[in-house]
Amino acid sequence: MSFPAQNPIKRLLHEMPRGTPFGIEELARHGADARLASFYARSGWLVRLGQGVYALPGDEISALAAARLLQSRVEGLHVGGKSALALRGIRHNLPVREVLVLWADHRFALPRWFSDRYPSRAVSARLFDPLDADLERATVSTPPGVLEGLRVSSPERAALELLHEVGVHETLEEARAVFEGLRNPRTEVVGGLLSKCNSVKAVRLFLAWSRETGAVDVDRLRARFELRVGSSSRWVSRMSDGTLLQLKPYG
After folding, report:
1. Shared-domain flag, residues 14 and 107
2. Crossing angle, helix 172-179 and helix 200-213, to 10 degrees?
């Protein structure tokens, strides 16, 4: 098989980590433009996953490795909600078909090469007003033992993301069972998030279940933070399964 005189594929094969996808930008850093990438794919030295996305032949690409690539293309993208809690060891059960939940503040669509390969869901919601840099760093990071560089919600943030989806993609029963696994949430982080959260349902559920489980001291939070519970009235909503959810302001 013949190659161009300058052959960056050799460098790619030697330097690229196995089991991870890479975009045309990464190829360019190794000296291959889009034309060369297409040539290498036709020649069997690369596998084309989708437009501008490639992998090395024979590699099994995990959903998390693919999600890490998406993070470089979608601002603020991170693993959130139930998926983030599971990655941090907080889960209720092992579903037959686990769906990877990816969050971002603004609307985005998962590319077809990703959604066709991995059970996944995109959540576009401005759940919080802009967080300061310290709180942002405290609530999105890479858990120990998880793929380096993968952005994952902290337990406190993931719990609120999960509760935001109750009645839409998450059942009340499953969310409650997962919430009960929340252990020792950081008071400063919880208070900071609850004071910035735009979902009254998520805030009130968090406070109500925290009172019931003892996850956090709700009265202490009330004394130190301005919690966004909406009005002083009872919050009432009917879930998609017909369940009537009624929540007091502070649990």
Report:
1. no
2. 50
Put simply, whether the predicted model's pTM sits higher than 0.70 gets the answer yes
More confident of the two residues 15 and 230: 230
Residues near 107 by beta carbon (within 8 Å), at least 6 away in sequence: 124
How far apart are the C-alpha atoms of 206 and 228, rounded to whole Å?
11
Among 77, 114, 89, 88, CA closest to 99: 114
101, 168: one domain: yes
- Binning the chain into helix, strand and coil, the percentages to the nearest 5 are 40, 15, 45
Q: Tell me the pLDDT tens digit for each residue of 17-33.
A: 889 999 998 888 888 88
Domain span at 22: 8-55
What is the total count of domains within the chain?
A: 2
Q: b/e map of 122-152 (b: 16 or more CB within 10 Å)?
A: bbebebbeebeeebeebbbeebeeebeebbb
Task: Mark whether 36 and 156 lie in a shared domain.
Answer: no
The first and second tokens of residue 236, run together, are 């009432």
